[in-house]
Specification:
This protein is of the alpha+beta class. The chain has helices spanning 7-18, 25-36, 50-56, 64-72, 97-104, 110-133, 156-166, 185-188, 200-215, 226-240, 248-251; strands at 39-40, 45-46, 48-49, 77-81, 85-89, 136-137, 170-176, 179-184. It has 11 helices and 8 strands. The strands form 3 sheets. Strands 1-5-4 form a 3-stranded antiparallel sheet. A 3-stranded antiparallel sheet has the order 6-8-7. Strands 2-3 form a two-stranded antiparallel ribbon. Strand 2 and strand 3 (48-49) form a beta hairpin.
């Protein structure tokens, strides 16, 4: 039997889930990222970069160096694309292996094709330099162009770095200021990390649980997004032939 709650209770549940924080210091930052599933990295800076505000609002004792250390020293978070580029828990790395593979497939859109055309001649040389020299940033590569365009008119080496990053061949080893420093993925990933690739059903359940844990609730007649609806359908389809519990049972602890 489904329990009914008021709108006020639902709002408090959402706030409690979204603002949840536990622990102290650097561990509290990791706990928050693991609970939310990711924290988007944002260039907007008013007093401080926006992602630092997200963490400070949940932990008054937060300091930006906590996040830097989790990325560069502890290797307990990594950078990749969630709905945008974000800090993600390293424990969830295996759930993004399919994303890396998708970025390695031939481009399909006009923008993707143009980007790959610019990056392709530089992919091997850029990767070779990182292999031989160690961690490098975009500024370590010269820009031989005579003219530069707008904000998004990156130099070819930077475009190549971005493609290699999205493909999972290199990772952000650290940030110096706000600039990424890249290294080979095998030199960034912590020893013993689980690299087994989940199937579609397992990945769908992970994404459902991640979204609902962060939001704290969902309505059975109005799931939080079209993407989540599709994930639930995938979860249900994957279980149908085994006659296991349906996907909606995943939602029940979070429904209102």
């Amino acid at each position: 039997m489904m329990e009914q709650v008021s709108k006020g209770q639902a709002r408090r549940m959402a706030l409690a889930a979204g603002l949840r924080s536990s622990g102290r210091g650097k561990q509290a930052v990791l706990n928050t990222i693991e609970h939310l599933g990711y924290v988007q990295i944002d260039t907007i800076s008013v007093i401080e970069r926006a992602h630092h505000h997200v963490l400070w609002s949940r932990q008054p004792g937060y300091r930006p160096e906590f996040l830097d250390e989790l990325l560069a020293k502890d290797r307990s978070v990594f950078e990749h694309w969630a709905h945008a580029v974000a800090y993600l828990p390293m424990r969830d790395y295996r759930y993004y292996l399919a994303s890396f593979e998708a970025f390695r497939k031939p481009p399909t859109t006009k923008w993707q094709k143009e980007r790959m055309a610019r990056a392709k001649p530089r992919l091997k040389p850029v990767l070779k330099r990182i292999e031989e020299e160690g961690p490098l940033s975009s500024r370590d590569f010269e820009d031989g162009r005579l003219k530069k365009g707008n904000w998004w008119d990156w130099k070819p080496a930077k475009v190549a770095l971005e493609v290699l990053f999205l493909q999972g061949r290199i990772m952000v080893s650290e940030r110096r200021g706000f600039q990424r420093v890249y290294d080979l993925s095998e030199r960034v990933l912590p020893e013993g990390i689980d690299l087994s690739e989940p199937d579609e059903e397992e990945r769908a359940e992970y994404q459902i649980r991640r979204a609902l844990t962060a939001m704290g609730q969902a309505r059975p007649d109005r799931r939080p997004s079209a993407q989540l609806e599709a994930l639930c359908d995938l979860r249900l389809a994957g279980q149908a032939h085994r006659r296991q519990r349906p996907a909606d049972l995943i939602l029940r602890p979070f429904l209102f």
